[in-house]
Amino acid sequence: MTIHFNNYAEKIGIKNNLQWYRWKVFVDEPLEVLNTIKNVQYLLHKTFPNPVRISEDRNSKFALESSGWGSFKMYITVRFENGTEKEFEYYLDLTKRRPGR
After folding, report:
1. 30: which DSSP letter?
2. CATH number of the domain within which 16 lies
3. pLDDT digits (tens, 9 = 90+) for 1-53
4. Is there a domain that residue 40 lies in?
5. What pLDDT is stored for residue 10 in this prediction?
6. How would residue 62 be classed by pLDDT, with cut points 50, 70 and 90?
7. Neighbours of 76 (CB within 10 A)
8. How far is CA 26 from the centre of its chain?
9. Are 24 and 5 in contact (CB under 8 A)?
10. Is residue 99 part of a domain?
11. Which one of 21, 32, 45, 86 has the largest count of C-beta atoms within 10 Å of its C-beta?
């Protein structure tokens, strides 16, 4: 099964001479697929404090929100309700804006 992800980002200011962004990454699938997922583990770049983050919030599409200054590849493990899991790679694109903004 392929799971699709998406993200949004917005500029929040300059810090240490770098443009910082607030971003959100999430599972971009319909409710039928979300209902098969138990949790989603995100492995962020090693420079993040606590780079392993887990979302169990199906209502948010297992979203993770954070902030930073650069795009990077994250590694995502989706754990399904049936006990199986699948690993994915996702590139966080800071140029993607929330619809309507």
Report:
1. -
2. 2.60.40.1970
3. 899 999 999 999 999 999 999 999 999 999 999 999 999 999 999 999 999 99
4. yes
5. 95
6. very high
7. 19
8. 5
9. no
10. no
11. 21
Mean pLDDT score, 57-84 = 97
What was the pLDDT predicted at 101? 60
Domain that holds residue 57: 5-92
One-letter identity of residue 98? R
Q: Assign 3-class secondary structure to 35-93.
A: CCEEEEEEECCCCCCCCEEEECCHHHCCCEEEEECCCEEEEEEEEECCCCEEEEEEEEC
User: Rounded to whole angstroms, how far apart are CA atoms 89 and 15?
Assistant: 28
pLDDT of residue 98: 79
Residue 88 to residues 16, 25, 29, 40, 73: CA-CA distances in angstroms? 32, 13, 14, 11, 10
Residue corresponding to tokens 């999430």: 26
In sequence order, the 6+-apart residues with CB closer than 8 A to the CB of 23 are 7, 8, 9, 10, 65, 66, 67, 68, 92, 94
